[in-house]
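Thread: "does anyone have the structure for this chain?"

Original post by V.I.:
We have the sequence but no experimental structure in hand. Need at least a predicted one for the grant figures.
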Amino acid sequence: MPYTGGCQCGRVRYEMDVLEYAHVCHCRMCQKATGGLFAALVGAPKDKFRWTATAPEDFWSSNLAKRAFCKECGTPLGFTYDLPDARQYVTIGSLDHPELAPVTHQFGLESKIPFVEFCEAIPGERTGDTTAVGEFLANMTSRQT
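Reply from O.Q.:
Generated one for you, tokens below.
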């Protein structure tokens, strides 16, 4: 049974066969992309993900990350990296049943807003803490202002 979700107005819908890597990201790019204090995201391999109604519009927030949103209602729907094996991530809040995606990790702790007390017991890391992530992000050029 696929997991389903979409935007507020129903114009953009999706389904995914699995929910993987449910997490929150506190980085400034995710904060700005969602307009929130953090982004809550869950992913699926691209071959297990489908847009089922009108496809969303995209904004390339950097040379590496494409963010999906509905142009009619403005709902931020997710993002994917520009890599062949990258997952499609969706905002957990856009799932029809967000309770099925419990958060298991936090990223971007360097930008976590000090008064946000959320997921304190969940493990986390600063952006670029691992060598592989640091090398990947070293080539990133932000397109947000």
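V.I.: this helps a lot. Strands lie at 3-6, 13-16, 20-25, 39-45, 49-51, 57-60, 65-69, 76-81, 87-91, 105-107.
O.Q.: and The chain has two helices and ten strands.
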